[in-house]
Design brief:
mainly alpha, Tetracycline Repressor, domain 2, 208 residues, DNA-binding, homodimer, elongated
DNA sequence: CTGTAGTTGACCACTTTGGTCAACAGCTTG
DNA sequence: CAAGCTGTTGACCAAAGTGGTCAACTACAG
């Protein structure tokens, strides 16, 4: 079913994928409107159902597609020998931003797909990928050198602060980007800014 | 119109308010369903429109009500002479949690109401309250003693880290609460946890 | 018994839903 | 030119859902 879809003009593929992911992540599975998707993608109603037999089929396809793209990008960008926790997170944010340039709503889509009550459509898919993700986390943390931290700091809590900072920063950035000038986000400038935060936190929590 | 509503059984008032706020904050103004609200509140369709002439009337009422409740709670709980930025934020989180016990979705409601594209229903209300909020922020930061920070740390960035940490923490807490045991959130235990994070950050960024 | 206040849910006209399908355009073959 | 093939359209469908109304019900007071 999907081979035909992949023979399409790539730009059209992207338009369809992005429109559908946006609609699903904005409204959840049930409330997402296929009418709205085709309108935003600039295609006809019939075409969508020509390539995907169902709303559910489309959803499942998107879920798999997003998951695969993300894991591939991770595989390509991560350095699994990295010992510095902060640099590890730096890489993750980089992956995120790079993906957002092509698929602006992929992360939101995956987030709501993995958490929300939408999961009637993805019972076992869910669990399979949950396992996959936890394996990646394990792999990420395996080599981290915790002896770099100052004595007495609670590393678990620092990790939380770090994650919330990264998430908070990227959320505001993407929000800002979507509002004003879409697509032309300056990845380099963002990474410079991210580095400032990482430096701040490093100096706060690493031994000097 | 609203006097009649306030004569209702208080528990019923709360049921209606919470159901409506949840629906609005979950789906936005246009997509929110009055049918779903009355179902969740356990009242009949007619009753809702007996107390509020309109969907829009209901929305406006909720917006004003939430705003007023929040400001009142702030007025009661904040200490405007506080000079410690971290303690200031501690108070804010406390207000937030206390309100969430009675109105679990009030913050989400206000957040989407103030940001989202929903604002067709609230053009001037919006601006009035934006001004109000910025006044409160100004009042908050007026007395803060920035000399407490270590030399060389970028205070603006620290403030961001602090805010993202508070938001991240309360988000996970409320998520966790909603999933497992609703309503019986242990405010004291949460504040103990918050204090741990605040202590961590204080030791990181304040002069010793 | 009457009046009043609170409450119901069947009902309305209207929109939107996911999904179908006959028809069409553009292209390569013979 | 015709025949076939692929990609594409949008009018159309039954079904569900929309915001909102209203005659009728209950329950209690005078």
């Amino acid at each position: 079913m999907t081979e035909k879809f992949f023979n399409l003009d790539e730009e059209k593929q992207a338009r369809i994928i992005n429109a559908a992911m946006k609609e699903f992540s904005d409204h959840g599975y049930a409330q997402a409107s296929t009418n709205e998707m085709v309108k935003q993608a600039g295609i006809s109603k019939g075409l969508l159902f020509h390539y995907f037999k169902n709303k559910q089929g489309l959803y499942l396809f998107l879920y798999d597609y997003a998951m695969q793209k993300m894991l591939a990008e991770m595989e390509a960008s991560m350095d699994w020998a990295e010992r510095d926790l902060f640099m590890m997170y730096r890489r993750i944010v980089e992956v995120k931003f790079r993906l957002c340039r092509v698929y602006p709503d992929m992360f939101n889509f995956l987030k709501v797909a993995n958490t929300a009550d939408t999961n009637e459509a993805t019972p076992e898919l869910q669990r399979r990928n949950e396992q996959l993700i936890s394996k990646w986390y394990e792999r990420m943390y395996r080599n981290v050198d915790y002896s770099l931290f100052k004595e007495g700091v609670d590393v678990q809590r620092v990790i939380h602060v770090l994650r919330w900072t990264m998430e908070g920063f990227s959320y505001t950035q993407l929000e800002h980007m979507k509002k004003l000038s879409l697509e032309e986000l300056d990845l380099d400038a963002m990474m410079v800014e991210i580095d400032q935060y990482l430096e701040l936190l490093k100096q706060a929590f690493y031994r000097s």
